[in-house]
Write a structure and sequence with these properties.
heterodimer; A: about 20 residues; 1 helix; B: two-stranded antiparallel sheet; 2 strands; about 50% helix; globular
């Protein structure tokens, strides 16, 4: 579902934020 | 018997996509949907995060959205 995709994108961006 | 996944989430696959055109995190996740890779959502996020950290792609905003891209 698109909401799951949104959640995954948010989780991925959160992981990357520490790095970027 | 389980069918083999038709898509693999690998550094090389991500690299090829990002060389072709800039992509958002959502664009990338769409290319590696869990039903096609056989990975869980959590695995997908973790593996993709590791790959992006390693590739360290360039970033730019397009339509107010952050996109990653690589040059050859």
């Amino acid at each position: 579902s698109s909401s799951e995709a949104d959640e995954m994108a948010a989780a991925l961006e959160a992981e990357l934020n520490d790095f970027m | 018997t389980p069918s083999s996944s038709d898509v693999q989430l690998t550094e090389e696959a991500v690299r090829r996509y990002l060389i072709r055109k800039p992509m958002t995190t959502k664009d990338l996740l769409k290319k590696f949907q869990t039903k096609r890779t056989g990975l869980s959502s959590e695995q997908t996020v973790n593996v993709l995060a590791q790959i992006l950290k390693k590739l360290n792609p360039e970033r730019k905003n397009i339509n107010d959205k952050m996109h990653f891209y690589l040059t050859e």
